[in-house]
Design a protein that fits this description.
Structural class: alpha/beta
Order of helices and strands: EHHEHEHEHEHEHHEHHEHH
Number of helices: 12
Largest sheet: 8 strands, parallel, barrel
Shape: globular
Radius of gyration: 19 Å
CATH class: Alpha Beta
Helix content: 25-40%
Number of strands: 8
CATH superfamily: NADP-dependent oxidoreductase domain
CATH architecture: Alpha-Beta Barrel
Strand content: 5-15%
Length: 310
Amino acid sequence: MRNNRRTELVMGSAQLGLNYGAANRVGKPARETALQLVRRAVDAGVGTFDTARAYGDAEDRLGEALADRPATRTITKLAPLSDLAPDASRETIEAAVDASLDQSLTALRRTSLDCLLLHRASHITAHDGAIWERLKEHLASGVIASLGVSVQSPAEAHQALADINVTHLQLPFNILDWRWREAGVIAALQADQAVTVHARSAFLQGVLTAGDPGFWPLVPGVDASSLMAWLEDTARNFRRASVADLALAYVRGQNWVDGVVIGQETQDQLDDNLWLCTRPPLSAQDCALIESTAPRVPQKLLDPAQWKSQ
């Protein structure tokens, strides 16, 4: 909530193109349902959408749904480029980058990209910087309006913030996540008003709000029932309507967060999220109090990429 600006609700689209989320029991919605969800969000005032080449056909669905709504803004991510060999030539690398951009432009039905993020922070330096250099060329030509990075860790965030071309940062953040504060990332973001920050995973892939310990990953040192009890008690103590209200109000109450990315696969979920964003965010004082009493969870819980390796 920079400079007293209201934290924006950004509609995520991973669920629209993939079976995504630890607590997702509905699955990927049918195409027409996905289009209706996007259009309903626009009609409710949502103006920014988050997607990626790696999200199945999410870009294509957004492109179709938003074709007659030019005032909206779409943030997408470069393809993971996993097929590039370590010794790939510069020409091969540039062709792979160009192909990802062309595919995004075609799917989104745009002549330029509002914002492109690296889906892999390592691509800033990979291949002697060839990927990043090619993207900066497209930034200079106007094919990309702004560049940024989707990061997974504080180390990646610090690396991204060191590059002046990074004007957008997306990171996972929730009410249990202590990493960014302790690593100095939040202090760096508070000091740099030029970088737009979007927080994703406010509900930790739906685990925090599932209401069932069976949805929690089996991480050593994690007592799901105790954490659920703390979340429920905290929601009551701060007079929030639910754990979802608490979790979202906490992220929206951060003065360094410009937008919160939330995905949904049903109309009920969308309506709930829209309603939650009409609720007041927590104050800075309330956020600080919660941080002082929050249980210390293992870092592995905060990184869903590690859940499958247990």
